[in-house]
Amino acid sequence: MRIVNRVAALAITAALAGCASLKPAANDPAARLSAEAQTRLRAGDFSGAGQLYEKAGGISNVPDYFRLRAADAYLRAGDSAASRRLLGSVDPRHLDTDDHILYGLLNARIDLNAGRAREAMARLDGLDYSQMTPAQKGHYHTLRASAYNQLGNMVESARERIAAAPLLSSPDAVQKNNEAIFDTLSRLPDPVLDRQSEGAMGVFEGWVALARVVRHTAPDQRAKAIADWAARYPNHPARGAFADSLTRRSDLTAAEPAGATAETKPAVQITPLAEPGGSRSAPVVAVLLPLSGPYAAPAEAIRTGIDAAHDADTAQNKPALRFYDTQAGDVPDLYRKALDEGATQVIGPLLKEDVAALANSGELPTPVLALNENPGVSASRLFQFGLTPEQEVEQVAASARLDNRHTALMIAPSSAYGQRVANHFSDYWRRAGGRIAAVKTYTAGSNDYSTLLEDVAVLVGQGGQTTPIPYENVADFIFLAADEHDGRIIKPYLESLGVNLPVYAMSSLYSGKPDPGLGRELNGVVFCDIPWLLDETAGDALSERALEAKVTQTPQNYRRLIAMGIDAYRLAGRLDELRSGERFEGATGILKAGEGNRIRRQLSCAQFEGNSPRLIGRAPSQ
């Protein structure tokens, strides 16, 4: 466990020492609502508990106490936006020690849900560990584990979960934590895992040994190998039910390819590469992903989708999967090594520079499905598949055009991403014969949008004079690039200023989960997104509903990448069909190969109505 900054912690403690307790008194007006909220929590109705706690905050003598509890309940319900809104109204300077820790933990969770691991870690480092309850310490270590996972440091992620283990009381939480420890260590490349075994001590040593035993033991010998491991580590927390369960997990089967060693094997092998006797009759899919380093979190989301699609594959000649860490070697070299080890299909790489390196490396004997688009490169056997905002922009714009819109007011964040989206929309819209009335920018994540439409008008020069003209007179719709937090504030703000134009938005406006507040704040907004998130009636094994447990463990910003991984696995064996003009109905849209073997996606469009988006059909085909 990382040592907390003692100076900062002591300063916080001293500052809080003079604060009066913010716990509600017995006669607090919100006591009845609080009791009902606690009942809802025990029943698992986190959203209902959050609503009651929020109401309690509106009438209580200590509103921040209840706002914190509401924020916690909303987070448990998966509603980061509502939680962030409530935490924004809490003044941390007036919180007592216990609630100040809760405030920090909640904000760290929100940062992690948005993929901001460094910000989350900074918040956690500023908390006084010595003042935490055992439950808070368990939460603290779990959050740090998630942050390290996003940062690509799987070893420290596992260590933090090991530190959390004795602080967990629920059997379900213990089981999930054990699974997370084992899966994290199992995904380390062999050289990294082997280095951990040198000098490892205590519980961590036992976990590393268990991961190595399972990886290097044939399935029919695993039960005995695990029994031997248990004899060596008689007091280990994984001993017993959890370790025994590993003998029954079919996804852990592993066989060493000929010639592989712990030093040369670059990735974790999840499924067999060879039939008994050395036959290589089954196809092999090599997956090139940055499994460590700064891009490990999005890579992990893609891998989740690939693994899920592989698990759901019922084909008789089901391919094996082999993962290679592109952070650990030169991508063209890894590609050639994968072919030498029997790969018949290749998925990846993910980073644009790696796509370029592979495209420029010479002939590609086996077709490659890259997981990004690099507009500057192409190769005859390289297919480029990415969830690019440009494709989404074009389909949102085409939807507006289909609805007979002509003149746009553009609103986008003043970030590099915002400018990229705004520039592409402007170019596309003008080529389609449309007009841009004005472009407005804002600071993403801000709670102050007062300068966004300060004049609520377009200034048109007339002989040196300027005349304010209401936007409704010169624009017939708004194109909005915003995330859920910004969008839920900007649209009502526009309406309060009298700007009541139809809104067409980017999918970043939708977190992927229905929310009671969406119908009120985003009512009428049209956006286009991947079908996997929008079709709530889907019930197959790869639907968002069926994979809910894996989805909730994935940072919100990366959840669409699970669908990308699903499609990548299913497309890898169909690249020749795509080249010949076939279309494929995937989780990320209806897919076809366009110019330069770039995969084009036809999205689904929806409109906010009531508590969730309502499907209104497919985007116009491009």
From TrEMBL:
It holds the Pfam family LppC. Gene3D superfamilies: 1.25.40.650, 3.40.50.2300, Tetratricopeptide repeat domain. It comes from the Bacteria. Keywords: Cell outer membrane, Cell shape, Lipoprotein, Membrane, Palmitate, Peptidoglycan synthesis, Signal. InterPro entries: LpoA, Peripla_BP_I, TPR-like_helical_dom_sf. Residues 1-25 form the signal peptide. This is Penicillin-binding protein activator. It comes from Methylococcus capsulatus. The lineage of its organism: Bacteria, Pseudomonadati, Pseudomonadota, Gammaproteobacteria, Methylococcales.
